[in-house]
Amino acid sequence: MSWFYLPAVIAALVVTVLELTEVVALVFALGAEQGSVRHGVVGAGVGTAVVGTTALVAGAVVLAFPDVDLLWASAVILAAFTVFLFRSTLKTFRRRQAPAGTSPPAPSRSGLQFAGGFTVGAVETTEAVVVLLALTAAGHGLSALFGALVGGAALVVAALFVHERIRRIKTPWLKLGATSLVLAFAVFWTGEAAGYHWPYGDLVLAGLFLVALGVVRLGVEIGLRRTRVSPA
After folding, report:
1. 1 domain residue, yes or no
2. Which residue of 48, 91, 223, 231 sits 20 to 30 Å from the alpha carbon of 201, by its own alpha carbon?
């Protein structure tokens, strides 16, 4: 196969898996409120398809497009989702402490899930597309496309298995982790949009997540204590 260039395939596969893994993680986070990732998956799929199609139709334009505005928009949206998910997390912990049958069902937020998924899919696909287009410009377009498709397919299959395990996690703790994850990404993308070079690159997300987890958990505890001391 004259078109097959293994280094380009491996590079495209690794980049696709690394970037779209973040999409999968955030789609799970955005779907924590309803216990379903359907709307987030649709939004992420549309966002990914829009950027991917644009890259195929006008690759040079996408390669030259400054993504700082997109990063700012994504950071703002995720910050808003952090507030939304934190309130939802606090309500879930309160419902857990309330007597059975006294808590109303959670309202639907399908539109917010779709918007969040779309933003995440568009941002991460843009980052992957930049690398893929660079490989294409070097003359390895088919190899890059093949590697990206293999990486994407493998990630989808893996996500299906992970999703079933995530659904078994108790809702309050899932929402706690989801809120912390979204907050970590909001801080990370805010720094990138502002031109800050994070030490160790994407690996710093692990540290940001741990810090965010502590902050959100503290916020939940404060909220629960206020609930206990407030009048009935």
Report:
1. no
2. 48
